[in-house]
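FAQ: What does the model actually see?

It sees only this:
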Amino acid sequence: MELSSELVIEFMGCVPLLQRLPASSLMKIAGLVSVRHYDEGASVLLEGEVIDGIYFIWEGEAEVSGSFHADGEDCSEFRLKKYDYFGHGLASNQSADVIAISKLTCLFLPNKYANLLKPNSIWSADESSEDRCSLVEQILHLDPIEDDIFKGITLPNAPRFGKVFGGQFVGQALAAACKTVDCLKFVHSLHTYFLLAGDFDIPIIYQVYRVRDGRSFATRRVDAIQKGNVVFTLMASFQKDEDRFNHQVPTMPPVPNPDELLSMEDLREKRIMDPCLPKTYRNKVAIASAEFIPWPIEIRFCEPNTSTNQTKSPPSLRYWFRAKGTLSDEQALHRCVAAYASDLIFLQVSVNPHRYKNNKVSAVSLDHAMWFHRSFRADDWILFVIDSPSAHGGRGFVCGHMFNRKGELLVSLTQEGLLRKAREAVSAPKPKL
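And it is asked to produce this:
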């Protein structure tokens, strides 16, 4: 019985042990495993034998038995079924018998390739990549802690905004979902809800629910949990690539080349020195710049202007963005980075027509949706075109399109958020004496 590499890769997407692996490692393993068959009652491994590799159950069942069994112990805990695994990554003696209790088919990975199961990152198998890893790739790294459960943290040098950044929730939750789907399927749409503010001082637990697994599509739900509460939830759909129909209606507007535009850092410095801007505003920008944590995403505005955050302007914006540094090649990572970056400057555009002196508006994301149309690299320039068609009932609504430099439509997005007048800080009462 020969198995195609495509079937093997799909199978490995359901094996919990392999959730920590980058796609490149899974592709290699798919080409290295061999198929082993056993009749019912046959010994797969015997106690005392030298284990020569790792076995993944493709079909059938096996039972573990040996001197370690205690009387009355639940034997179901030692019954192995499809997607279970046993063996050892290093040559050692087997501590129990493994017996086939039905016709059994296993995929076998020899010990000499066991290092593929121990990557430094969920995104890259390159040991040297850890030192040169992009900051946003580090932010989107998760630690698998149980089957379909991952842990994420807010790095000290990651954007915070007084709470866990919404884009971090979107990017990390999508990363968790991606790690439970075989690497031949890519996210094509996601829908999220921001439920509670996140605490950046404590880890975030991402619980993944396998809603559906099909040959062409897979669906996942992810809950982000802190202090026992679900603070954020995501639904994502994944599809195996198909080459069928192709058209595009939205066109990329004429904008300057990103290489001709100032970076956010240079633009901020220019505003501090610009005599056309109010002194109080320039001083605030200078103070904020000293405390500013640089973003892991580089942004260049297509239409830099002298407006302040209290100047009325049209509900639209265009800017180029890309990840700082070089990202690993896994396409899932690049889509997670675009999801992360999409929340940096998006909802704020709906506030533009409502800006005026002494009117401070608080904008809080409520939900966020993305549709991925084409593959791309998030460490190459992407144009984000944003419009806000409506604000009403205390909610602002924004739509966006992302294009590559060739004008191909990569992603379509929408977001709705709560818009309210910001509360003024209450000063402490002065003593009368």
